[in-house]
Amino acid sequence: MNIYLFQALNGLGVGMVYFLLSVGLSIIFGLLGFVNFAHGALFLIGAYTAMFVTAQTGSFLLGLAASFAAVAFIGVVAERWLLRHTYRMPHESQILITVGLTFILTEGVVMIFGPESQQVPMPDMLAGVFMFGAYPVPVYRIFIFGVCAVVGLGLWFLFERTLFGARVRAGNESSEMLNLLGIKVSRVYALTFALGTGLAGLAGGLAAPLRGADPSMGAEAIVIAFVVVVLGGIGSFSGPLVGGLIIGVTQSMMSAIWPEGARLAIFIVMAGILLVMPKGLFGRA
């Protein structure tokens, strides 16, 4: 029984990383109706950015800040010069363009850092375990949970209590509404894209000490992100949080029960929930 509780606690930490990864994807899709298959590559860049900055400065916190800032900047540039011109295209075209962007970003990482997997050392201040009763919980998992909880509360406040959030919610319903209100839609889109992609970068930076950094992690991340978004409900803010925790705990528990089926289990959970709730847990029609 102890091993299952331990895995469940670990799964909560992983699930919060999935929340950060997928909430940006959900925000972008909810406002822009844009299918961003390059989201996983941005997660990848966030992991390598955190690794590089941490190695150069000795500060993991600076590495995390850089992972958000660098990926948000890439997101703004990509949105301004490329993706903005695809919003009115069919989703199939958006998928092809963002898959192509994924290849470009991934190969850029390979050219700079090489194709081999690289270990990212655990920060000294976050090494060790915390005794939760009789159960040891890695301090870094608690740190991840705390960071993601703070970010989640910040996002809730941003979208529910600020003028920018009101504009995003209005644009979520109708971009024409923003135009009628005299709001510059392109600026709202760019800021939303920067926030959504920056969160993917931060998720990559947090995940790097857990799994290392390698060029294949982007492809794995985009699959997880879409599972979480579809499970939680497309365009929802609460959905990625609940969906990420469900997927994280399921994957972690299955790795102890049936390691070979851990990846399969998340799709079974998604399919089971969608059979009962076709719109996802918090999705709209």
Describe the structure.
By secondary structure, this protein is mainly α. The chain has a single domain, classed as ABC transporter involved in vitamin B12 uptake, BtuC (Orthogonal Bundle). 75% of the residues lie in helices and 3% in strands. It is built from eleven helices and two strands, in the order ααααββααααααα. The chain has helices at 2-32, 39-57, 60-81, 91-113, 139-161, 163-173, 175-180, 185-211, 217-232, 238-257, 262-276; strands at residues 129-132, 135-138. Strands 1-2 form a two-stranded antiparallel ribbon. A hairpin with a 2-residue loop joins β1 (129-132) and β2 (135-138). α2 (39-57) crosses α8 (185-211) and α9 runs parallel beside α11. The longest helix is centred in the N-terminal third of the chain and has 31 residues, at 2-32. It is globular. The termini are far apart. The relative contact order is 0.21.
Topology diagram in text:
Layout: H1 2-32, H2 39-57, H3 60-81, H4 91-113, E1 129-132, E2 135-138, H5 139-161, H6 163-173, H7 175-180, H8 185-211, H9 217-232, H10 238-257, H11 262-276
Antiparallel strand pairs: 1-2
Helix pairs in contact: 1-5, 1-8, 1-9, 1-10, 2-3, 2-4, 2-8, 2-9, 3-8, 5-6, 6-8, 9-10, 9-11, 10-11
